[in-house]
Specification:
InterPro entries: mRNA_splic_Cwf18-like. By secondary structure, this protein is mostly helical. The chain has helices spanning 2-20, 24-37, 52-60, 65-74, 77-80, 87-118, 123-145. It has a domain at 84-146. Helix content is 76%, strand content 0%.
């Protein structure tokens, strides 16, 4: 067991040396030097710093109310508001409802015409029926031309 583990360790070391170009110590030092030159910003996610200098650094990144008002002016609030879940259904149904409204108006006119013809004992009601018929013909002629 021990011999197998030693052989495996040797193979892994040889593989590492091949990958790193046979200079593992120099490459590690270069990586460390590059890391020292870069300064990463401090992020305090899990705790509040006690040192006053560190607190000052962390407060630099906090946005001011001026920045917030500028972004609010730039954004359109109507685009941010969510649409109702059935807005597309209403849009699709409006076309069908327009057709049904025309049919409803025609049937109401027909019912009025029938009622007036039933009571057509007087001449004034006959004139009203003729006026309704003329209006309906004008409406249908206008719809056909559209």
């Amino acid at each position: 067991m021990e011999e197998a583990s030693k052989q495996r360790k040797e193979r892994l070391e040889a593989l590492r040396k091949r990958k790193l170009g046979n200079e593992p110590e120099n490459n590690k030092e270069e990586v460390k030097e590059e890391g020292k030159n870069e300064k990463l910003p401090l992020k305090f996610r899990n705790y509040t710093p006690i040192n006053e200098d560190i607190k000052a650094i962390s407060k630099i990144n906090i946005s001011t109310p001026k920045d917030i008002t500028e972004t609010l002016e730039k954004t359109d609030l109507f685009n941010l508001a969510p649409k109702k879940p059935n807005w597309d259904l209403k849009r699709d149904v409006e076309k069908k409802l327009a057709k049904l409204d025309k049919i409803t108006q025609a049937s109401i006119a027909e019912l009025i015409r029938i009622r007036l013809q039933g009571e057509s004992n007087e001449n004034s009601t006959v004139d009203l029926v003729d006026a309704i018929n003329a209006q309906q013909k004008a409406d249908t002629d206008g719809e056909v031309s559209d």
